[in-house]
Every structure is written in C-alpha cells, then in structure tokens.
C-alpha cells in the first residue's frame, strides 16, 4: 500500500463526502475528550504527583472502632497517638510512620498588616517531610526538638504565603508570623503543593503537639485508642507491608481491656483501597467500584465505536462500485481492507488530536468544577485552583488515549469493511447501474 496514494484517495473521499468526514472526526474527538477527562480524574488520584511520589508504598490507618459485646456498646473515631505508638510506629516492619491530623480538621487564620488570610493547616511531625517530597525553597523542616517544644511554636509555610506576608521565601525564614493570634517562628518555606494531592496539601504545616487532640485518660481502657489522628505508614515494598500486616492483625486480635471492650475494626488501607472503598463507615465493595469503572469505560469506548461502525458501513455501501472496479483490476480483499483501515486510522488520529485539545480546554476552563470532583469542598479553604502540567501531559494519559484511538479504529472499520468486501465483484460493479 502506497501511503502517498492512500492519502490522496482519502483527500478525494473527504472532499466528496465532507459531512461524513466531519461527523466521523467529531465523533472520535468528543469520545476521546470525555475519555481523557474521565482518565484525568482517576489519574490524579493514583499517579505519583508532587509531592506525593510514594503513593504505591504508602498505607493509611485512620479509623478505629471498639465494641463491648456484652453491652452492645460501640464507639469509633480517628486513632490516638497511643494507638499509633503501640500498634504501628514501634514495628520493625515499616520504614517510618508519620502522625497527621487530616486536612480540614483545623482551618487557620493568618494575621497580616493588610488583613487576614484563611489557610489550610496541617498538624504533623518531622516524618511528614520524609513521606512527602516537598521542595524547600528556603529553610528546613522543623526538628524533633521543635516538635516537642511547647513554646515558641514553629511552622513551615508555602511560598505563596511567604510571598504574600514577607515578600519572598528568604525573608520569611526566621521571621515571626501570627497564626490564630499566636506567634509562630517560620523555619522553612516549601513550594506549594496542589489541592488534588489532598493528603499532603496545606498552606501551613505545624507540629501536632501544638494542641492536644487525643481522647486519652481512661487508665488502660481501649478508649485511650480513640483520638484525632491518622497514621501514614511508609513501606519499602509490598513484602514488608505483608509482614507488618501479619504482626498488626495479631496485635489487634489480642487487644482487650477490663471493661470487655475489643477492637472491632482498625483497617489499614493502601492508597488505592482508600480511593475505591470510600470511608470506613460506608465502605464501597471493591467489586462494585471496579464494575462501575468498567461499565463507564465500555460506554465511552463501545458506543462511539458502534456509531462510527454504522457510518463506515454506509460509506462502504456507497463505495461498492469503486471497490468492485478495483477488485476487477487485481486488487485483493487484503489490499482494500488495509486501505480502509489506513483511511480510518488517519481520520481517527485527526479526531484524537482534536479530542486532546478539547479535553485540555475542558480541564483548564472547568478546573474548579473538576477539583470539586477530586477534593471534598471542606478541604478547600481558599485553596488555589491549579491544574499542573504533570496532570495534563502525563505519559500514562497519552498512551491510554492513543490505545483508545487504535481500539476505536479497529472496532469501527474492520468489521464493516470485511462484510462489504464479501460481496461478489459482479454485485459490487452493478450497485450503481
């Protein structure tokens, strides 16, 4: 097959049937565009994005439930530091553990000479900066001594806060900033993250010891494990996680107190399990989440393919005389099928490129609505709306969309072309007598 002559043939057909060409390219473009938008929503939740580059080896412990079977009393909440110390952080089967109060638990107010700034505050420890690869533009993370210090209070802020309050990151380090009407010493300035990476996102990061958030004081009761923290656990690989989970589940099964309480639930989830299953109170079965994803992808893939296949079938009926004539001069069915597949590939590629542009336009123009699909509204306290380049130009999305185009091409072109070319040459030649 000569590519140049095939392209000339396609150009003649497109000029002769502009309506078919426009509908075909437009159908592919919108199918690819909506598939890409759908893929972006999932991609930014699972892909390694700044600063969450270790999502595949990070697990989360957040919710605990204790139950007394004799009284049917059940209590549940986030976990306490005591629970983290006894069940997680002292294990040899982890790299390290970070204590974090979830984003949105405490919205902070920064006082400036020009007014106040609402900010997302995260309370955590030094290991937070090992878990999340924030880029320090100036200064450093707070130290272990500074975490345990009662006064003065220490804080790491983002470059946007530093520029608004101090003019530059360099001027911020060592300076004092008023947060919730209490003075804090700035020890570091990081490059701002993205609200999409909501487990790490914050405008200001402070030691968790700044305020008591543990429901302890029950003198050995399992109620001491109820608190207001999450534990983010970093593993070296899946095998280390398996060893830890065996150790952890054994500890959980043996935990009990004198009042008859036992731990009824304290699941540790991987990053992907957390996305698919939802929260602990209303978990979504894994098979249901996967089924809904497959159905949505099938709708986005199969329905346009069926429509385009019907269009190509009609186009092949109009070209019966042409194909009959070419076959009578020696063209084989294989040659004609390759010609049709090539033409369909070029049109699909054109539609795919337009679809890329449409998808990027939707994401850029509707980025606020898109972020609301990705991040709960309570987590977005004056959060800047940002769609980064690594979301738009991710290789995984490009490759996925390209595969989508190829599958769409094969499904929509091969079957009608094959069926049309089964007709005898005489019938094809007589189709326009």
UniProtKB/TrEMBL annotation:
Q: What is this protein called?
A: ABC transporter permease
Q: What is its main location?
A: membrane
Q: Which InterPro entries match?
A: ABC3_permease_C, MacB_PCD, Macrolide_Exporter_MacB
Offer a single GO CC term for the protein.
plasma membrane
Q: Which PANTHER family match?
A: ABC-TYPE MACROLIDE FAMILY EXPORT SYSTEM PERMEASE COMPONENT 2, MEMBRANE COMPONENT OF TRANSPORTER-RELATED
User: Which GO terms fall under molecular function for this chain's record?
Assistant: transmembrane transporter activity
Listed A to Z, the keywords are: Cell membrane, Membrane, Transmembrane, Transmembrane helix
A Pfam family reported for this protein in Swiss-Prot or TrEMBL: MacB_PCD
Ranges of residues in domain ABC3 transporter permease C-terminal: 294-424
Membrane topology designation = Multi-pass membrane protein
Q: List where in the cell it is found.
A: Cell membrane
MacB-like periplasmic core domain residues are 21-246
UniProt organism field: Duncaniella muris
TM segments?
Answer: 21-44, 293-312, 345-366, 392-415
Kindly indicate whether the keyword Oxidoreductase belongs to this entry. no
Q: Give the organism's phylogenetic lineage.
A: Bacteria, Pseudomonadati, Bacteroidota, Bacteroidia, Bacteroidales
